[in-house]
Amino acid sequence: MEIKILLAEDDTNLGFVVSDHLKTEGYIVSLCSDGIEALKRFNEEVYHMCILDVMMPKKDGFTLAKDIRTLHKEIPILFLTAKSQLEDKAEGFRSGGDDYLTKPFSVEELSFRVKALLKRVNLSKERPDDIILQVGNTMFDTENLSLSYKNKVQSVTKKEAQILKLMLRQRNQVIPREVILNGVWGQDDYFVGRSLDVFITKLRKYLKEDQTVQITNIHGVGFKLSILS
After folding, report:
1. CATH for 4-125?
2. How far apart are CA 79 and CA 38, in angstroms?
3. To 10 degrees, the CA torsion angle through 204, 208, 213, 214?
4. Per CATH, which fold does 132-227 belong to?
5. Lowest pLDDT segment from 42-51, 122-131, 146-155, 171-180
6. What is the C-alpha separation between 86 and 58, in angstroms, rounded?
7. CA–CA dist 39, 132 (Å, integer)
């Protein structure tokens, strides 16, 4: 199977070197130059591993790892950093990282670390995004952007679909507003925040007839998509 790696590194030269080396080993690599772009990309595609630089603009690697962990509990995360202090490494593991590679490093060592981390996960369980997802008793067609409940079909926009997919990954758990905003828009300012509220209102309207689905606003924190039995 093809293994996809998300690489977040703000050093352009190092990013290209690491990306090119991983590609020669058969991996599919998405290279991002900052943490916000990386989180947005993570929300748009399915990855099997993340390699994150610690010191990045907009969102550092530790914060990015915490956001990724809210969306995926098991994906391997490898940190790249110039810091070698024990406390820095401890912070990396507390943030959800699985391994730590200190710069400068050889691409051979990177390869060994990547292979070792991938062995810890059962890649056969990593499914690509399904086209049809079930939201309670509603069928969500992610390709044709529609929701089907009984005999009624409701079209959704691309943004609405992205938000619903992200919340569905975290069903029955609270997902912070900033994770949704950064994951879908790549920013979390006031104006996109208001847009998110509008989209959430629309999704509630689309799903209101399905009594097994609830979208709850957790004041000051975020939202929770509940699937009721």
Report:
1. 3.40.50.2300
2. 14
3. 50
4. Arc Repressor Mutant, subunit A (1.10.10)
5. 122-131
6. 25
7. 23
Q: What are phi and psi of 33, to 5 degrees?
A: -100, -5
Let me know if the fold of 4-125 is the same as that of 132-227.
no
Alpha helices in 72-224 (DSSP H): 86-94, 107-119, 158-169, 177-184, 190-207
Edge-to-edge strand list for the sheet holding 49-53: 28-32, 4-8, 49-53, 77-81, 99-102
pLDDT tens, position by position, 89-139: 777 778 888 998 888 899 999 999 999 999 877 664 445 456 889 999 999
Whether 8 contacts 61, CB under 8 Å: yes
Q: Model's pTM, two decimal places?
A: 0.74
- Token pair for 206: 């689309």
Q: Residue 181 and residue 31: Cα distance in Å, rounded?
A: 21
- Domain locations along the chain: 4-125, 132-227
